[in-house]
Q: What sequence folds into this?
DNA sequence: TTGAAAGCGCTACCAC
DNA sequence: GTGGTAGCGCTTTCAA
């Protein structure tokens, strides 16, 4: 049996009450000498307060709940690990710990969201990978659980989110190419509902601004996900066009790497024959040959910001809900140049 | 106020007891019809059991505690993210969630280890980055909290650990070079107490087996950590030897990359002039020029295995303690070749 | 099958 | 400053 307050009190010859005061640092209400004795006993017996009991009386838990998306190898993904790092650094700085709710299917993720109501946490962070189950979100609102959604814009009056402005990211990429003189720009888009729209809008806006007509042939929307194979295959489609693009904007670095591969096979040089631009700035981007120009998504900052917002709501629930965007930035390396001739 | 068992019972016109039975799936003790009514009410009111209260009665929490090392950006490190992925996949598969105890200093890590006793978790996983505070470990033993240490060998009769056999890793690396014909092999070692010893032993063993005398000059033990700068500087020391080595074994891929850099500056080609071998197999290793031959450390598997062991102890505390090693493997790419001439 | 009552370990409030 | 008492929401006896 674990040591309880009672055990400590008995051994120290004081009441439970007194021990509780000592444990909670309310030293002004306990005689110095008593306090020391109690502390000695605590040390000696290795007493640690029972968290469940403490929670039951309605205290803050000093822990944040994190809902993971249904994903194997979750922490091995660049965006997940960066967000988690940001979250844990920011939470840790305020003395908060993290409860990660794990799931292997979307169904489970919905259940986990409900679990945020189960009293172990002071607030929740919901990490999205593009297919968020918003199923139980309204329950959270109803019960006034403070929570923030990361990486997905859920436009509800009582819901907070922080997301990366992917429209702006695509815009930056295309703008960069246009500035270099490109007029025919291929675009390989991903497959996640919200993300692909935003990315496409950015592509279109940059084109519009430059007075370039959008040629639908230049836009490939893939269904396989943000992996090398996707880029490899999409590159083919673009290259086989009657008038192939002089540059390719992708929606992930992995896709760009796939494009590289196909280009090399076809004897095309990057960036002399064709420019390529990635998205994400995962660590391997700068080690490509040539080093990949790409759009960095500040996922770490996203995590930090989400915690900041959440903390505000934990401290005071009566706040206007927050819908915030973080702007990605262009990382200029060596995969883009002037169009040939 | 959150919905409680009582609220549900009242609304459904039954006793708390009955609702509890339904919530816990003990359907054989409740009339079919009653059960349905109760379930409807639960759904309708959005009732979620209070976890704290449940815990207080001594139930399993179905959550595992994870003690993080004192590290900023923790999840951005290859080994941490891989271990975390392994842990979360394995825990999730058994319906377990994870409580991450965050810390920014060693002192805090010790406190967190004590927190494993606070009743929110069924067992603990302690992740080491080489400087484990074993301070409160004995308290865990005394209170019979099931726990497993990852990535550090703590030889205590009641402590479980899973670690990577780093001795074997170094051995593999050196052996590989010897098999290629190298006789003079530089070794850049890291700075973490336990790890450097193991790595050095592996280096020595391979040399011994081949009947090569160990020249202390060839061994550089760095203090700066496993980063590029370290490799860059250490390479210099090795190169300036009266008789420089024909190959270099490193203790991290990052160090190897630093070595690459210095070698290139000096006009030395890898592997024609000098062979280099990394350690870790982080994702960028294969994108180096030339692709880095390295020792893969299966951290994901380490996480999975740790959870397996922990689960055994949770289910039955009377087990012989487990001290287990996982063997790294050689990933043969293009940075090693025969010695010049 | 259902209901009443005790108790998990703690905090908070009350007198002393 | 200190000690008693109630009660947080649930599970688990034990009776009905």
A:
């Amino acid at each position: 049996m674990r040591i309880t307050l009672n055990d400590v009190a008995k051994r120290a010859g004081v009441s439970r009450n007194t021990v509780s005061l000592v444990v909670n640092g309310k030293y002004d209400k306990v005689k110095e000498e008593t306090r020391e004795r109690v502390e000695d006993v605590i040390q000696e017996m290795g007493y640690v307060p029972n968290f469940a009991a403490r929670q039951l009386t309605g205290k803050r838990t000093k822990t944040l709940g994190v809902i993971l998306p249904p994903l194997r190898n979750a922490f091995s993904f660049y965006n997940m690990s960066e967000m988690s790092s940001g979250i844990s650094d920011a939470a840790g700085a305020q003395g908060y710990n993290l409860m990660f709710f794990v799931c292997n299917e979307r169904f489970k993720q919905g259940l986990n969201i409900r679990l945020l109501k189960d009293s172990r946490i002071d607030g929740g962070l919901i990490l999205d990978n593009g297919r968020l189950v918003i199923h139980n979100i309204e329950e959270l609102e109803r019960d006034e659980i403070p929570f923030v959604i990361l990486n997905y814009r859920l436009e509800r009056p009582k819901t907070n989110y922080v997301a990366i402005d992917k429209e702006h990211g695509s815009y930056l990429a295309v703008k960069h190419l246009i500035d270099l003189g490109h007029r025919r720009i291929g675009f390989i888009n991903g497959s996640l509902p919200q993300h692909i729209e935003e990315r496409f809008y950015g592509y279109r806006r940059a084109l519009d601004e430059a007075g370039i007509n959008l040629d639908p042939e230049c836009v490939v929307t893939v269904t396989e996900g943000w992996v090398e194979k996707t880029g490899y295959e999409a590159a083919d489609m673009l290259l086989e066009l009657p008038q192939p693009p002089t540059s390719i904007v992708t929606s992930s670095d992995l896709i760009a790497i796939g494009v590289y591969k196909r280009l090399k096979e076809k004897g095309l040089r990057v960036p002399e024959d064709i420019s390529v631009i990635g998205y994400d700035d995962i660590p391997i981007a700068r080690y490509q040959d040539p080093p990949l120009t790409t759009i960095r998504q500040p996922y770490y900052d996203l995590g930090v910001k989400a915690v900041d917002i959440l903390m505000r709501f934990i401290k005071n629930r009566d706040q206007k809900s927050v819908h915030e965007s973080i702007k990605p930035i262009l990382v200029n390396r060596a995969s883009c140049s002037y169009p040939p001739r």
Observations:
- The longest helix of chain B spans residues 193-209.
- Residues 14-18, 21, 29-31, 34, 53, 55-58, 119 of chain B lie near DNA strand C (CB under 10 Å from a C1').
- Chain B touches chain A through 54 residues (CB under 8 Å).
- Chain B has two domains: 63-164+299-326, 166-297.
